[in-house]
């Protein structure tokens, strides 16, 4: 199994601390466009790592939680990158673009994750490069298919299905509140030249709307404040298809497999809303249960301003804390979390 080198940084966060900017609350019209009509959102919160070379697929296959060796040109896959203790250092959406495997990652982790992965390349014929500067990432949500048909000859017909064109790759990602969603990732000049085609057809909205849609889709994203806090199952990556339990070894694989097969998954990610503003509801904030105020019962994974008010959050929490009583932000007498239904079903833990 791949073990961290002695000289590897203790955590990804320690290697290169970067902070994502706090996005202001979007206007109601921006939320409405994504839900009622169609919207596109340039997404500066993502970074892109390109892996190239004859051994790129096999190298990543030995590092990530999902199968990259058999990743074909028509699909994308979620994947995690774990420490030796099975804790997530990063989460990715991965796909092939020609001879390159692309990794879409939270921008505050891109440089540190790339540096750490590069330490393990050794004699493999693989090279990792930062493609963030020359790549544009755009999210689209709602009734956007007609507008997209002016850019791509075909549209993906299923979740994590991908099509390619001169302007890059178009990937369908999980729906949010019943609305279609796509990620368009391509050369910055090609993408920006075509965005004008959306004028009069789609509304340009804040990237914060996309963060909210990701939360309502129940898809967690690892960012700097929560690095090394969760094994993949704690953020539902086993349910979302981000872990392949039949593939070979990767860092932390024994811990992840043991959690899966020995019934030790006692914490999961749930969806909730809490009163307040984004500045006070942040990833990494601790949660407390009304019946056990002395110790935290969970943590905020992701947070985004909600159109109905307050902040929608994905929270990692003890399953027993959801059975009775109430969960609060920051302290047992802090703001109350109102639990919401995830758009998918979690397995019954034993």
Total of helices: 8
Element pattern in H and E? HHEEHEEEHEEHEEEHEHHEEEEEE
* CATH architecture assignment of the largest domain: 2-Layer Sandwich
CATH class descriptor of the largest domain: Alpha Beta
Roughly how many Å is the radius of gyration?
A: 20 Å
SSE class: alpha+beta
Query: Roughly how much helix do the residues carry, as a percent range?
Result: 10-25%
- Name the beta content range: 25-35%
Average pLDDT metric: 93
- The name of the CATH topology of the largest domain is Gyrase A, domain 2
From the spread of the alpha carbons, the general shape counts as globular
Q: What distance lies between the first and last C-alpha atoms, to the nearest angstrom? A: 29 Å
Residue stretches low in confidence (pLDDT < 50, at least 5 long) are 1-10
Indicate how many domains the architecture comprises: 2
The biggest sheet amounts to: 6 strands, mixed
In CATH, what is the homologous superfamily of the largest domain? Probable tRNA modification gtpase trme, domain 1
Task: Say how many strands there are.
Answer: 17
Cross-sheet strand order for the largest sheet: 8-9-10-7-1-11
What does this structure look like?
The protein is of the alpha+beta class and 350 residues long. Helices cover 17% and strands 32% of the residues. A six-stranded mixed β-sheet has the order 8-9-10-7-1-11. The chain has a six-stranded antiparallel β-sheet with strand order 16-13-14-15-12-17. It has a five-stranded antiparallel β-sheet with strand order 3-4-5-2-6. The radius of gyration is 20 Å and the shape is globular.
């Amino acid at each position: 199994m791949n073990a961290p080198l002695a000289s590897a940084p203790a955590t990804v966060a320690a290697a290169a601390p970067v902070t994502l900017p706090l996005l202001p609350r979007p206007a109601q019209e921006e939320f409405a466009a994504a839900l009622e009509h169609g919207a596109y959102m340039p997404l500066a919160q993502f970074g892109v790592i390109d892996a190239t070379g004859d051994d790129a697929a096999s190298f990543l296959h030995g590092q990530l939680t999902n199968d990259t060796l058999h990743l074909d040109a028509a699909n994308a896959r979620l994947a995690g990158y774990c420490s030796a203790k099975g804790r997530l250092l990063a989460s990715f959406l991965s796909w092939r673009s020609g001879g390159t495997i692309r990794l879409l990652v939270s921008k505050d982790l891109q440089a540190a994750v790339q540096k750490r992965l590069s330490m393990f390349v050794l004699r493999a014929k693989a090279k990792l490069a930062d493609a963030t500067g020359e790549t544009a990432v755009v999210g689209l949500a709602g009734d956007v298919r007609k507008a997209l048909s002016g850019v791509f000859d075909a549209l993906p017909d299923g979740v994590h299905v991908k099509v390619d064109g001169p302007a890059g790759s178009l990937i369908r990602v999980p729906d949010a509140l019943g609305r279609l969603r796509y990620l368009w990732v391509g050369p910055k000049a090609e993408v920006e030249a075509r965005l004008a085609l959306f004028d009069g057809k789609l509304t340009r909205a804040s990237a914060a709307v996309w963060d909210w849609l990701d939360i309502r889709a129940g898809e967690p994203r690892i960012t700097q404040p929560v690095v090394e806090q969760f094994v993949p199952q704690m953020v539902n990556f086993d349910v979302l298809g981000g872990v392949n339990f039949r593939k070979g070894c990767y860092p932390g694989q024994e811990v992840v497999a043991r959690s899966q097969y020995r019934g030790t998954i006692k914490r999961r990610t749930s969806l909730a809303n809490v009163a307040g503003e984004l500045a006070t509801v942040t990833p990494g904030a601790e949660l407390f249960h009304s019946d056990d105020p002395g110790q935290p019962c969970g943590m905020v994974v992701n947070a985004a301003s909600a159109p109905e008010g307050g902040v929608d959050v994905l929270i990692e929490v003890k399953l027993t804390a959801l059975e009775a009583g109430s969960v609060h932000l920051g302290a047992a007498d802090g703001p109350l979390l109102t639990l919401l239904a995830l758009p998918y079903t979690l397995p019954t833990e034993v």
